[in-house]
Amino acid sequence: MTERSGQAGDATEGPVPTTPVCYRHPDRETYLRCTRCDRPICPECMRDASVGHQCPECVAEGRRSVRPARTAFGGGAAGRHGTVTKVLIALNVLVMVISIASARSGSAIAGGGLGGLMGGGTPLTEWGAVLGLARFPDGSIGGVADGQWYRLVTAMFLHYGLLHLLLNMWGLWVLGRSLEALLGPLRFLALYLLAGLGGNVAAYVFTEPNRFTAGASTAIFGLFAAIFVIMRRLGRDTSAIVPILVINLVFTFTVPSISVAGHLGGLVVGAVTALVLAYAPRMRRNVFQAAGVAIVLVALIGMAVVRTAALAG
Fold first, then answer.
1. How far apart are CA 252 and CA 221, in angstroms?
2. Is residue 261 classed exposed, middle or buried when 0-12, 13-18 and 19+ CB atoms within 10 A define those classes?
3. Entry pTM
4. Where are the domains of the chain?
5. Radius of gyration of the chain (CA)
6. Confidence category of residue 6, pLDDT binned at 50, 70, 90
7. Residue 116: band (very low, low, confident or very high) from pLDDT cuts 50, 70, 90
8. pLDDT tens digits, residue range 13-30?
């Protein structure tokens, strides 16, 4: 009896098995474990993984160790959403509404060139369009050569009438989403702004100083050139792009109210910028792309400075 009692006492004094609890919620019992670190996790903390389930910390660590997806030219994959394209379109439409409101007449919508389909000028286009140097009816002098450098940027967001706006926004919608997806948002925005600026600088340099020019078509022609360059770089078919570009060039040279210098300037700068972005060597690609874009920008500023000196002198 004594021997049996001693054995029984030994059994009761041994370790008592316990149920595992979640490492984040000690009051919750669980038999689930993270497949990565083997810690107990409750159903609330359980995260689906490629193999089994993981705890929140292991999932976060895995995300940090995965490199973000990049495009073939180093841009972010977020460009596939076309956010920059949509914002640019919204901005152009907003500026058009403000322009119409500033005119307080129907001439801002139609009644201008192309048989009355194009709109006329407004106080806003008079303020922001590219203008070399001219004297206004009130006797004041204005233009880029008079220090109004902002015109080289604002002009790419101004339009003469709804038809002018719709044609350019259609081109931006079609070309912009494809280029933004290929280049990424930041590179696409740099391309768009440089092409627009390049067209405006060309209009400033090669157009009569007292002529107003405005419109997003400077940037749109840059996008046409860019999509051609980038598609060739990727080895894709460009046969559908060439006829559209040729048609637009025919309109450029045959319609009197269109700025030939602006369109060709945007086309050339868009092509050069696309070459920089598409053919930068993979090693230190970001540095080469940034340097190339900066060189193009400095060259445009230099052309504008030389033209200003000629007009102001």
1. 11
2. buried
3. 0.77
4. 16-65, 79-312
5. 31
6. very low
7. very low
8. 555 557 788 888 888 888
Contacts of residue 227, defined as CB under 8 A and 6 or more positions apart, other chains included, come to 175, 178, 179, 241
Catalytic residue among 53, 159, 164, 263: 263
When pLDDT is cut at 50, 70 and 90, the band that residue 187 belongs to is: very high
The one catalytic residue among 53, 217, 239, 257: 217
CB 241 within 8 A of CB 231: yes
Q: Which ranges of 184-240 would DSSP assign to H, the alpha helix?
A: 185-206, 217-233
Contact 22, 30 (CB under 8 A): yes
- Geometric angle at alpha carbon 145, from 151 and 258, rounded to 5°: 50
Looking at residue 142, the DSSP 8-state letter turns out to be E
List pLDDT tens digits, range 196-252. 999 999 999 999 999 999 999 999 999 999 999 999 998 888 888 888 888 888 888
Q: Cα–Cα distance between 80 and 174 in angstroms, integer? A: 13
Q: Is 217 one of the catalytic residues?
A: yes
Does 263 qualify as catalytic in the annotation? yes
CATH superfamily of the domain spanning 79-312: Rhomboid-like (1.20.1540.10)
